[in-house]
Structure formats: structure tokens, C-alpha cells
From TrEMBL:
PANTHER family: BINDING OXIDOREDUCTASE, PUTATIVE (AFU_ORTHOLOGUE AFUA_2G08260)-RELATED. The keyword Ligase does not apply. Keywords: Flavoprotein, Oxidoreductase. This is Fumarate reductase flavoprotein subunit. The keyword Flavoprotein applies. It comes from Jeotgalicoccus aerolatus. Residues 5-336 form the NADH:flavin oxidoreductase/NADH oxidase N-terminal domain.
Length: 366
């Protein structure tokens, strides 16, 4: 039967998405200096909830020393729970599921952002970017502590009323750093072989589900976002990604979310290869993995785009920039109205876009 963008979809842990479109996680950089929720943040998300089946709140750090940028949102301490609750309540009252994306920046952090602390990672290999600081290698017992930090953050967002979390295994943050042969050069059980590099993301996923179950939330949604390929050498190739996903499929993940700028993306490593990454995925997915919904991303601006992506094989699509420009994006599609493609002067106030985000959106302005 042909899938429709307004069809419901049931997730394996028990919750239902009312349609196939979700608001993509997008960093707004407008939290308080300690990472707690501002009123602006609540207004911005509440304004955009209601149409999409779920709102995935932006990347949120799990550790006081794990920020990737200024104004980042945090779930690293209990005093943040009341603010996070305002956020979850605002989204849920409008009728969308509230999901929050969790990360640790690892080697993508800097001492300036993290109270002078040197960043940490799987190994002491600096990221390939200007001014990257060489991280300190985590000791084995610190890795166990890090897994617990993810669990503690999950407990906080459950107390705040979120329906689920998205583990941020993309954007070269810590989960990806453990899996990548570029950033992980360890020779203990946490590194070396692909099987060992998989151990950290696998243990985090297991622990998160265990935590939700212990807190009486067996239907808590757990998504996992991944970057399909890395340009670093050595780096993650698509075969590695399929190995990761085929194994994570055994750990009660509710959806896997591609991180890419276009849902029609092909390989960035082998640019002569014209096969869509989506088709590579569908060909290489195990029977178990095929049971788990996949969420595509990138470039959805209209009902035609969304339908084409779903008919190509994605089960759901996340929509980012179109939600910045059109807070009622999904409802516009439902009503057969044309969404806008650009922002114009004054939209920051009209569309409730916080100033730190507005200031970096020059590329979307007419
Ligand atoms: C301003 C901005 C902030 C973003 N922040 C995040 C983030 O916090 N986490 C993440 O996984 N992706 C982030 N992304 C990527 C989006 O989730 C999305 O995948 C991307 O924008 C492509 O989808 P689109 O064409 O619908 O915008 C961000 C994108 C934008 C434009």
C-alpha cells in the first residue's frame, strides 16, 4: 500500500506519530549561559508545534563540560528540569510529541565553552578543523561514567515530561567519535575493531532504554541520528554505517534518522557513485533493521517534496528550515497552501525566531 505523508505510524515501543513529518532538531543558541531554558525558547518551539507529529528539540548537552557552542541547551543538572518541563508542556499541549536530542561534544568542544576544560574524546586526535584543540583520551572508567551521564540526562527529560530522546550520533559529536576510525584509535575494548568502536553507542542505547524502563516508561521513544559518511581518512564509510545500524537495531531503537542536507543525497566519498544513500540503505538493511522506521532529512519545502521522499522509501521526514520560515508548515501542506521559501525583514518578531538564530539565517533571507 502506498504511504501517505498524513498517515499515522506506530513506533515499536508503543507510541504513535500522527503523521510522517517532524520538526528537525535545529540549534537556536538562545539558552541561558548555564544551558537552562529561556522564555524565548519556549515561545519558539510552542509556535511551531501542533502540525508535525513530533518536535525534536535541538541538540542538548548531557554534561557541563560537553557543550559545542554558545547558548547551547543543557540537560546536565536537576535544576534545569522545571525549564525543560515548560518546553515539553508547550509542545505537547499543541498536540505534537516532544522529543529532545542529546549529545556530548567530545573533541568538538573547546576550553572557552567549557569552563577552561580540555575537551575529551575516544583518543587524543584533534578534529580536522581550524583551531581544534587536541582532546584528552577518556580512561575506561570515565567511559562508564559518560554512559551514566546519558542515563542521568534521560531521567531528567523524562521527569520534565518529554515523550522521547534522539541520541545524537551525527555531526561528529562524541557518539560518532567513538565509532569513527579517525577519532577512535584505542586498543582496548572500546576501540580498534569495528565491533569495539561500536561498543560505546551500543552501550549508551542499551542504558537509555534500561533507564526508561526503570522509570516506568517502556513506551519512551528512542531515536538515533547518524551521519552516513565521513570525509576523514580513515573515516566512516556507508558500509560501516550499515554495520552500526544493523547492530543498533537489536537495541529497541524506535527510528533511525539520516543526517544530511538533501534526502536525495548520494555518496560524498565516491562522487561518481549515483546510487541514492537511501537505496544503499534499503539494499543492505537486515530483516530486523527493516522493521524500524527510517527518517530522512534535507530539502523538504513543499507537499510534492515530502510525498516524493516518502514514496522513495523513507517512513518519515524531518523538516528543518521550512519550519523556521513557516511555523505552521505541516498545516499549510494539509490545507493545500503554498509555504514561503524565504524570510523577510521583520519575520524574527512575526515568526518568533530568537535573535541568536535570526542572526545566522542570512542565507534564508530574500
Ligand atoms: C540553524 C540550524 C541548526 C541546526 N542544528 C542541528 C542540531 O542541533 N542537531 C542536528 O542533528 N541537526 C541540526 N541541523 C540540521 C537539521 O536538523 C536538518 O537536518 C538540516 O537543516 C536539513 O534539513 P532542512 O533542509 O529541512 O533544513 C541544523 C540546521 C540548521 C539550519
Amino acid at each position: 500500500m502506498t504511504k501517505n505523508i498524513f498517515d499515522k505510524i506506530e513506533l515499536s515501543s508503543g507510541k504513535t506519530f500522527e503523521n510522517r513529518l517532524v520538526m528537525a532538531p535545529m540549534t537556536t543558541q538562545c539558552s541561558f549561559h548555564d544551558g537552562s531554558v529561556t522564555d524565548e525558547l519556549v515561545q519558539y518551539y510552542t509556535r511551531r508545534a501542533g502540525g508535525p507529529a513530533a518536535v525534536i528539540v535541538e541538540s542538548t548537552f548531557i554534561d557541563n563540560y560537553g557543550r559545542a557552542f554558545e547558548g547551547a541547551l543543557g540537560a546536565d543538572s536537576d535544576d534545569k528540569i522545571p525549564g525543560l518541563k515548560k518546553l515539553a508542556d508547550g509542545i505537547k499541549k499543541k498536540g505534537s510529541k516532544a522529543i529532545i536530542q542529546l549529545y556530548h561534544a567530545g573533541r568538538m568542544g573547546t576550553p572557552e565553552l567549557n569552563k577552561g576544560r580540555r575537551p575529551i574524546s575516544a583518543s587524543s586526535i584533534a578534529a580536522l578543523r581550524d583551531n581544534a584543540v587536541e582532546p584528552r583520551t577518556l580512561e575506561a572508567d570515565e567511559i562508564e561514567d559518560m554512559i551514566q551521564l546519558f542515563a542521568d540526562a534521560v531521567r531528567r527529560v523524562i521527569e520534565a515530561g518529554f515523550d522521547g530522546v534522539e541520541l545524537h550520533g551525527a555531526n561528529t559529536y562524541l557518539l560518532q567519535q567513538f565509532y569513527s576510525p579517525h577519532s577512535n584509535r584505542r586498543d582496548d575494548e572500546w576501540g580498534g575493531s569495528r565491533e569495539n568502536r561500536l561498543r560505546f553507542p551500543r552501550r549508551v542505547a542499551e542504558k537509555v532504554r534500561e533507564t526508561a524502563n526503570e522509570l516506568g516508561q517502556p513506551d519512551f521513544i528512542i531515536g538515533y541520528r547518524f551521519s552516513p559518511e565521513e570525509l576523514e581518512e580513515p573515516g566512516i564509510n556507508f558500509d560501516d554505517t550499515m554495520y552500526l545500524l544493523n547492530h543498533l537495531a537489536d537495541h529497541s531503537i524506535d527510528y533511525f534518522h539520516f543526517s544530511m542536507g538533501s534526502w536525495q543525497r548520494t555518496s560524498i566519498i565516491d562522487t561518481a557513485d549515483e546510487e541514492l544513500l537511501l537505496d544503499k540503505y534499503l539494499n543492505a538493511a537486515s530483516e530486523r533493521l527493516k522493521e524500524i522506521p527510517i527518517m530522512g532529512a534535507g530539502g523538504i519545502k513543499s507537499v510534492e517534496d515530502a510525498e516524493a521522499a516518502i514514496h522513495s522509501g523513507f517512513d518519515m521526514m524531518s523538516v528543518g528550515k521550512a519550519h523556521l520560515i513557516n511555523p505552521d508548515f505541516v498545516n499549510l501542506l494539509k490545507d493545500n497552501e503554498l509555504p514561503n521559501s524565504f524570510l523577510t525583514e521583520g519575520d524574527d518578531v512575526k515568526l518568533t525566531i530568537p535573535a541568536p538564530l535570526w542572526n545566522i539565517l542570512g542565507f534564508l533571507k530574500e
